[in-house]
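Example record

One chain of 190 residues, shown exactly as stored in the release files.
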Amino acid sequence: MAEDIFEDRRRALEEAFFRKYNGQLLDRLKAEDRRRDAKESLRQATGIRDDAVLDRLVNLGFDASTLLAFGLVPAIEVAWADGAVDPEERTAILEELSPHRIPKGSPAYEMIASWLARRPPPEVFDTWVAYTRALLPTLEPRDREWLASTILQRAEHTADASGGVLGLALRTSRSEAEVIRRIEQALAGV
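Predicted structure tokens for this chain:
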């Protein structure tokens, strides 16, 4: 009788262990599937074939639904260049999110809002540079020029938004100018 109790207990513990282990394996498989799907959706949306760049995007939480937010990374980097996002810089960036491009409440909008509240890690800008360098060669020259021009205009608009010291001094600070220079280098493929 006592042996039956111990055997039943052993069996119950063994089943609980394997149920937990199988659940963990299933969770990992589901995560790998989500990751693979996100990577493939990014590949389809961007035309980029560089797995390292796609892995970096997925590691930062990007997928096709948040890719539009990625286009504003340079402007956000400029906004944070002085250590804080001014209300005017925030407004300048949010103006880029018209309901036709990035609707309020969408995953991309929420990502941008979080970046305006808390500075994104440096890996986000570094990944944007790698992404841009992988994307530019896939574009026609006319499209490449349009993209570079649009990105620089957004960055400069953000830098100009805070208006310098009391709106009287240079509108773009040194730290903002340095970020804009890094953006130009990325767009030039340097």
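Notes: The chain has nine helices and no strands.
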